[in-house]
Amino acid sequence: MRSLLSATGDDWDRRGHRLVVLGEPPSSAAWARDWLLAEPDSTDAAALLACAAVRAALRGKERPESARAACLVAAGRAPHDPTPWLAQLLLARTLGTEEEVVRLFDEVRVRHPEHHHAHHLMVARLAERHVAAGQDPLHEVYDFASWAAEQAPADSPLAVLPVVAHTERYRVLAAAAGRPADPVTSGHWTSRRARQVMKAAFDWWLEWEGEDHPRNRLDLNFLAHAKYCEGRSAEAAALFHRIGPHATPDPWSYPDRDPHHAFQAARDSALGSV
């Protein structure tokens, strides 16, 4: 782990991804504290402890105040690293106020304007606002996603963010209905605006050469899910071929489905139709 994080350098998306994943196991916080005892000045150990403490707090096994304190220590040791702020944003996405979420997102973005995970967290949080507005095409989550995609460079995977926003909004609306919903028959992906968003994202993907992005499979799963729900089996099949067996829980679990079963059923259907 020490060598891995050292080799990651300032590839901030990759560093954030690795630390958030490494911080997930329940044993990670104790391991990070042992590392800090051995190397008290290690910025990597401090960042790992921050991510592990946040994960523990989200499981109810650590006080949120302690997790925030660990994040601030890590941030102080590495002022240019967005990862401690990402960890705080991950915590605030569930437990924080709207003002806190916006402030932490800004802290991440000032250090890495295209931060992939931070933008996904913002979209998920914004999608939960104004549930009563229903399918409103002018909902703020769509504006935010479009703005972020337009601001990003041409080769940025944030081009897929409008699709993510549309899917996160589906998660919220389906859950608000109080019953399980089949995304394919929900009609959520059949509006003209939804089809335009998905076509633009799919056309971008066809020319994208960033297959080594650490969160690449997440974007592909969101896009495959959208194309399948739209009824574009051939396009979905192309994405499933690229994804292989690497399903991600989001968005296949939306709104309350078994993600493995949902992914496999969609994959089998799409591949069997072409």
Would you kindly provide a brief summary of this structure?
This protein is 68% helix and 0% strand. It is an all-alpha fold and 274 residues long.
Describe the overall structure.
With about 270 residues, this protein is mainly α. The protein has 2 domains: about 1-110, Serine Threonine Protein Phosphatase 5, Tetratricopeptide repeat, CATH 1.25.40; about 130-274, no CATH class. It is about 70% helix and about 0% strand. α5 (about 65-75) packs antiparallel against α6 and α12 (about 215-230) packs antiparallel against α13 (about 235-245). The N and C termini lie far apart (about 45 Å). The mean pLDDT is about 95.
Salient structural properties:
mainly alpha; 15 helices; 0% strand; TPR-like_helical_dom_sf; Tetratricopeptide repeat protein
Biggest sheet features: none
The counted number of beta strands is 0
The number of domains is 2
Radius of gyration: 19 Å
Q: What is the CA–CA distance across the termini?
A: 43 Å
Strand-residue fraction? Answer: under 5%
Number of helices: 15
| Shape field | globular
Q: List SSEs in N-to-C order.
A: HHHHHHHHHHHHHHH
Task: Tell me, rounded to a whole number, the average pLDDT.
Answer: 94
Low-confidence segments: none
Helix content: 55-70%
Structural class: mainly alpha
Oligomeric category: single chain
